[in-house]
Amino acid sequence: MKATGSSTHPSEHLKPNQMSFEDGEAYIARKDIINVFTDGSKTEYGVGVAFCVLTNDIWTYQWSAKLNDNNTVFQAELTALHEAVIYASHLPNHNTSKIHVDNRASIMASSNSKSTNETARKIFKILLTNPRIKVSWVKAHAGNIGNERA
């Protein structure tokens, strides 16, 4: 009998707790987790992306870049997440990282191995090989110190 449709092999699935749409703000106070906050934006001044890293209540790293003006907010958010995931993947293996993202669409796209977006597929592949990196949604513009800083 011939199989129909498409499915993914179990090895192509992220760990169940690796992506979360629940507000990740509760993790920020934990000292055993490296918290990374991402943001992408588009204004009349251009398109920008950034992420910042909070370790033991100390801001230890910040990265930002300007994108071409033809990029969308979604592309900016994905770029910020991609850069943050790359950063977290280079941390020592004993460190758990929690990446806080305020854009649900970028989390959804990045959790799909068959996403049509190339950047989202790159994020998925990095997460697949780095289960210690977790991604969670955080409410935008709600006074969250990390989200506002990014």
Automatic annotation (TrEMBL):
Family matches, as SUPFAM superfamilies: Ribonuclease H-like
The protein's name in its UniProt record:
RNase H type-1 domain-containing protein
Give the Gene Ontology MF terms in alphabetical order: nucleic acid binding; RNA-DNA hybrid ribonuclease activity
Q: Which domain of life is it from?
A: Eukaryota
- All copies of the RNase H type-1 domain together span 30-150
The organism's lineage is: Eukaryota, Metazoa, Ecdysozoa, Arthropoda, Chelicerata
Pfam families referenced in this protein's UniProt entry, alphabetically? RNase_H
